[in-house]
Amino acid sequence: MPMAAVEGSGTGLVTAVSTAVAPLGLNLVGAVSIAAYDAGLAPQQPSLAALAPDAHSVLVLGHGGGAFWTGFAAHVSADPARPDPLDAYTRAAIGTALADCLPASSRLIFPFEFPTVPVSFQRLAVLAGLGSPSLLGVLVHPEFGPWIALRAAVLVPIWVTAPAPAAGFDPCPTCVERACIASCPAGAVTSAGWNIPACAAHRARPDDPCAVGCHARIDCVIGRAHRYPAAAQVHHQAYVRPGLLAVAR
Predict the structure, then answer these.
(1) Does residue 8 register a pLDDT over 70?
(2) How much is the pTM?
(3) Which of 8, 140, 197, 226 has the most crowded Cβ, counting Cβ within 10 A?
(4) Best CA proximity match to 225, nearest among 144, 148, 150
(5) CB 61 within 8 A of CB 154
(6) Which of these, 196, 88, 94, 93, lies nearest to 137 by C-alpha position?
(7) How far is CA 28 from CA 140, 155, 158, 178, in A?
(8) Cα dist. 141→135, 153, 176 in Å?
(9) pLDDT (tens digit, 9 = 90+) per residue, 128-157?
């Protein structure tokens, strides 16, 4: 295929995908090449080239702020007798939204498939310029701060590019306020980063003081206007707690 056709198809695809998923609250769409993701992987880490031999690029889909959660909550409330788990809603909603705009042989994958499809979404997001590592252990975005989440990725058989708002963004070293460090009741956020054992030991308490939200994340100086709704924070804190308890043991 001529290069001009490839570039044109890529631009059109990014626009089509962004438009299709926007009503779901997915307002972050980034792109990275298969080769860039695979470069530097440890020998034991599966490559994307092996996972999808026909793919050239990955579109990374996520959101900043709580609009995606709002859509999920509305979906559940519309049929309270059969509430869908968030992962099931994510798979169905994104799959439906993208059904008519992906090239043949594209492959849709999700973060919750990691046990069987071990792709690092954090690596994808960093390479795609959707977020940068932070002291909190989560990615931060120039506008949304730590209030971003990665929901899906599409491996596509064409070359694509997309805006990379977090490319070169590294706010923590120059942050003066560092409210995240002061507000962590476990002392698990330091200038050296997130101390997972300290966080795990604190959250292993029967009353779990951080069940309603991560204090350090809430007080991050970036993106405060985009904090998730309270119900979303409770959900995510409950989701990660079993893994932290395993560390505490």
Answers:
(1) no
(2) 0.93
(3) 140
(4) 144
(5) yes
(6) 196
(7) 13, 16, 20, 26
(8) 13, 18, 18
(9) 999 999 999 999 999 999 999 999 999 999
Cα–Cα dist 212/40, whole Å: 38
**Relative orientation angle of helices 67-78 and 230-248, to the nearest 10 degrees:** 100
Give 14-40 pLDDT, tens digit per residue.
Answer: 999 999 999 999 999 999 999 999 998
pLDDT in tens, 221-236: 999 999 999 999 999 9
Beta strands 189-190 and 193-194, pairing class: antiparallel
Structure tokens, 4: 């001009």
Vertex 70: Cα angle to 156 and 241 (nearest 5) = 80
CA-derived radius of gyration, the chain: 19
Beta bridge partners, 60, equal 30, 153
Report the C-alpha gap between 182 and 103 in whole angstroms: 48
Residue 209 carries which side chain, given as an amino acid letter? P
Please choose, from the candidates 170, 165, 142, 132, the residue with its C-alpha nearest in 3D space to the C-alpha of residue 31: 165
Torsion angle, CA of 15/20/26/31, rounded to 10 degrees?
Answer: -40
pLDDT-based confidence at 11, cuts 50/70/90? Answer: confident
Q: In 3-state terms, what secondary structure has residue 105?
A: coil
Rounded percentage of the chain residues whose pLDDT exceeds 70: 96
| Torsion sign across C-alpha atoms 156, 22, 237, 168 | positive
Please give the pLDDT value at position 7. Answer: 39
